[in-house]
Amino acid sequence: MLDSESFFSIVDPSQNIIVAFSGGVDSTALLNYCYELKQAQGFKGNLSAIHINHSISPHAQSWVEHCQTFCSTRKIPLICKAINVDGKKSGLESAARQGRYEMFQQNIKSGDQLLLAHHADDVAETLMFRLFRGTGIDGLKGPLQQRQLGEGVLLRPWLEYPKSTLVAYLKDRELSYIEDDSNARNDQDRNFIRNEVLPLIAKRWPQAASQMQQTSHLITKHLVAQDTLMSMQFGEDLSESSLNLMFLKNLDSETCDEVLRYWIKKNNIAVPNKKILHEINKAFIKSQPSSKTCVDWSRADQAQSGGVLTFKDGDIIINNK
Question: Is beta strand 242-244 parallel, antiparallel or unpaired with respect to 294-297?
Fold first, then answer.
């Protein structure tokens, strides 16, 4: 059962609401839910939708037309934007996501709330995908419920609900939606997890997706607390884009690793994996670095800037790659 009180604890009805609308199950449920709430309670903010045409599927134009019809029937303003996806560098799925979010950012204004229909099954899928690839604790917090996006804010108000709740909502209202045939193909890792792994797990543990979402939520709370404690204990030492080497060498190895991760994250750079962190320790902490010492890394999906560490005047210096 979808709960409006929980929804409004995250979404501000006095501000504009924009729903990311693909026309699929999840976003159709979210957009129609927002429409019903606006009809019943009268948001002070405007309700609109944005559809991104990735120009990949031969059905892309018919999906645009479906979304236009859905919104026109309800008098919901709809923005349709087409993007070109180049998956050669980071893979098709990652490139599509990056292009989609760039377009979202370009079309969100100050005070706007962009709502995405991610749910507990998506969180479970993301956690499993990251675990199978190998991830640190930051990767286990899953999709964030709220974060800044351009001049506005991105919100995921339905992370606690399983997909079955959204499907039941659509069936109850006899609403049609788009079914992307590419989602049935298991050549993409996420599709394989979604179509094969999670259903198999659910047969034995029906609440597995919701339980994984709760674990992700607890990890997020732990990381927030850890960052607060890091700031309280080491804030002055970690406030710049340079970090004193002797300060690091005086820490035990476990604390040193956590301080490095926190400092890198604080500089809005992708946190390095275990292999890169080992390189950083070897090059800077356990050796005598010089002006030529350098360690760099990047994220394969390019969702966040990579980093470059160099050494100057007793300090490790961090820059975007």
Answer: unpaired
Cα 35 to Cα 67, 77, 88, distances in angstroms? 14, 11, 39
**Residue-wise over 179-199: b if at least 16 C-beta within 10 A, else e?**
ebeeeeeeeeeebebbeeebe
**What is the CATH code for 4-121+143-182?**
3.40.50.620
pLDDT, one tens digit for every residue, the chain (321 residues): 899 999 999 999 999 999 999 999 999 999 999 999 999 977 889 999 999 998 888 888 999 999 999 999 999 999 999 888 776 666 777 778 888 999 999 999 999 999 999 999 999 999 999 899 888 888 888 888 999 999 999 999 999 999 999 999 999 999 999 988 888 888 888 899 999 999 999 999 999 999 999 999 999 999 999 999 999 999 888 989 999 999 999 999 999 999 999 999 999 998 888 899 999 999 999 999 999 999 999 876 666 789 999 999 999 999 988
Stretch(es) of the chain classified as CATH 3.40.50.620: 4-121+143-182
Classify residue 246 as exposed, middle or buried by CB count within 10 Å of its CB (0-12, 13-18, 19+): exposed
Distance (Å, rounded) from C-alpha 22 to C-alpha 16? Answer: 19
Those residues with Cβ within 8 angstroms of residue 254's Cβ, 6 or more apart along the chain or in another chain = none
pTM of the full predicted structure? 0.85
Q: What does the alpha-carbon distance between residue 17 and residue 5 come to, in Å, rounded to a whole number?
A: 16
**Residue 239 to residues 84, 101, 230, 310, Cα–Cα distance (Å):** 39, 29, 11, 17
